[in-house]
Design brief:
Length: 299
């Protein structure tokens, strides 16, 4: 693939998903308008084509969720080519000039990750934000693949607690990239510390007092006075649940209380507990209790 001789689009705007600014195809699913922070997702069904050279102000991760195909990438003037297998991915750091060409129809999840999140995690884990992320081409990384699928599934379901879930996945992805694809990844050690009981109590009380609101990982970690990464690990160590799992569990418990109290429709109970609509209450209630809200109400 020859390098195109023209002005390179520098997509440094503050739009929700920079990839959409330079893609000629519309995604069939996008996180724009979902309220996610630090990470954005766009899912594409693309015919054989090429993408002219561009540059983004965020980290870009393309994940192949369909059949394998031949891929060419010109990154900073260097040609890379090979087979991108099902589940394979490519990683490009921010502000790198890149161009692509592929030989057949494919299905791709494209993630944009905010540089600020990488810097925040690098500071927490390495005590420096001066870390170089190394570009990757056609790597098979099961965790990146699973995070992409999980975020796509969450976006499709429009589930309650979606922002907290997306933030948790974004932080896990950022740490994974720093650990495995950065110049200082060997310095990152597993975190085995805990969270002080009084801080855990503050977080739990805050969650229970705000079940009807959209909660963010950033605000919960701030209450515990911990980095988001360390907070997630410490919270799960203490409760055996991720913050998102605990939030859903408590919303279902609140729903049980309101159903037993009576006087509210199922739709009203769902909204009062922080579920976006009744079907989400139904799905999580049955998953955690084994019965539907209606069956529980009539028992």
């Amino acid at each position: 693939m020859s390098k195109v001789q023209q002005e390179v689009p520098e997509v440094y705007s503050t739009e929700d998903n920079r990839f959409l600014d330079i893609s000629e195809r519309s995604p069939f699913l996008t996180s724009i308008g979902s309220g996610w922070s630090d990470i954005n997702l766009a899912s594409f069904d693309l015919p054989a084509a090429q993408m002219l050279e561009y540059s983004l102000d965020q980290y870009g991760i393309g994940i192949n969720i369909g059949q394998g195909f031949q891929l060419e990438r010109v990154l900073e003037g260097t040609l890379q080519q090979g087979f991108l297998p099902p589940g394979g991915s490519c990683l490009c750091p921010s502000y790198h000039h890149q161009a692509y060409r592929w030989d057949r129809r494919n299905q791709i999840i494209y993630l944009n990750l905010a540089p600020e999140l990488l810097s925040l995690q690098a500071t927490a884990l390495l005590k420096t934000d001066c870390v170089e992320v190394i570009p990757q081409f056609a790597v098979q990384d099961q965790l990146i693949y699973q995070i992409g699928l999980a975020l796509q599934a969450e976006l499709r379901s429009q589930g309650s607690g979606g922002c907290l879930y997306a933030e948790t996945m974004a932080n896990a992805l950022a740490v994974h990239i720093l650990r495995h694809y950065s110049s200082q990844g060997h310095r990152i050690l597993n975190y085995n510390g805990g969270v002080a009981q009084h801080k855990l109590r503050l977080v739990i009380d805050y969650i229970n007092d705000n079940l009807e609101h959209e909660l963010s990982l950033k605000e919960l970690a701030a209450i515990a006075q911990m980095s988001q990464y360390h907070f997630c690990r410490a919270f799960k160590q203490a409760t055996r649940l991720s913050p998102h799992q605990y939030l859903i569990q408590q919303r279902v418990e609140r729903a049980k209380q309101l159903l037993q109290k009576g006087g509210m429709s199922l739709g009203a109970v769902a909204i009062a507990c922080g579920f976006t609509h009744q079907s989400h209450l139904h799905r999580h209630f049955k998953r955690l209790t084994g019965v539907t809200p209606k069956t529980f109400l009539n028992s």
